[in-house]
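Hi team,

Below is the intake form for GCN5 family acetyltransferase from Oleiagrimonas soli. Please confirm the fields before the structure is written into the shared record.

FORM ID: S-0412
PROTEIN: GCN5 family acetyltransferase
ORGANISM: Oleiagrimonas soli
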Amino acid sequence: MTAPTIRAATHDDLDHLVDWNAAMAAETEHKTLDRAVLTAGVRGVLDESRRGFYLIAERDGEAVGSLLVTYEWSDWRNGDFFWIQSVYVVESARRSGVFRALYTAVEQRAREAGAVGMRLYVEHENHRAQKTYEGLGMQRCDYHMYEVTFG
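The structure came back. Fields below:
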């Protein structure tokens, strides 16, 4: 199997990104996302680089996975954390190095941008993903996440 290549997403990838985000939410959180809101949200990143960026993994010219990177400013460290979000790899390409290639590309971009680190969150029950992240050298944080949503 050939190694995946990684590239920045473009507006031409909108349909893949929307489909994959919807699939990821269904698979990992058993949630059905509103496609109109999701489409606008993905487009919002593609339209405004200040919000972040998507990367696409391709194998033999076919898109097989993606992730979103957003930024969090840390006043304590005087720099940005790159947050990895919305990770999706098509089922037929899982466990074949696609996420590793995406992660490596994010890490390279983060270092080149002078980021102070990378973060992500993972569902408590997603043990497979947790093992993957730990295998890449990431460590579980001491923080719990809380949120309030509006609307």
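SUMMARY LINE: Residues 28 and 126 are 7 Å apart (CA to CA).

Thanks, M.
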